[in-house]
Design brief:
Layout: E1 5-10, E2 15-21, E3 23-28, E4 31-35, E5 42-45, E6 49-55, E7 58-64, E8 67-72, E9 75-80, E10 83-85, H1 91-107, H2 111-130
Parallel strand pairs: 1-9
Antiparallel strand pairs: 1-2, 3-4, 3-6, 5-8, 6-7, 7-10, 8-9
Helix pairs in contact: 1-2
Length: about 130
């Protein structure tokens, strides 16, 4: 049996996933990279995208928006600003959130408020594109 990778996915609120897996594909800012057991140490920032967690014959897909990935001899830890399991997405709810975010951008009274609303909208659109 091949070595397994210790993988932890952490959000600001809590530990979302802690498991022994075969491989994880991470959306780094410099491009996607796969991590197997024994991977060289590495630190990368994340771009909005999908983490693919490969475990035997299943693949779990989790959308992340921002954060960091760290590979150490102990395994892979992803610290994500936001993480959403794609299997739990409600398409109608997502479309409503995008519409609200578009309105927030249009109604923004100042540049900092508009920039924050635009960042939220960009994240939601990236999530929608990942489905």
């Amino acid at each position: 049996m091949a070595d397994r990778l210790t993988f932890e996915l952490v959000s600001p609120e809590r530990l979302l996933l802690s498991a022994q897996v075969d491989m994880v594909v991470v959306p780094g800012t410099e491009g996607e990279f796969g991590v197997l057991a024994g991977h060289a140490p590495l630190v990368s920032t994340l771009r909005p995208g999908v983490i693919s967690v490969h475990d035997e014959k299943t693949i779990q897909r989790i959308f992340v928006r921002g954060g960091f990935a760290e590979v150490t001899p102990a395994g892979l830890t992803v610290l994500a600003e936001e993480a959403i399991d794609l299997a739990s997405i409600d398409q109608a709810g997502l479309e409503a959130r995008i519409k609200n975010a578009e309105e927030d951008v249009a109604d923004a009274a100042s540049e900092p408020v508009r920039a924050a609303a635009q960042a939220q909208l960009d994240g939601l659109r990236a999530l929608q594109g990942s489905l």
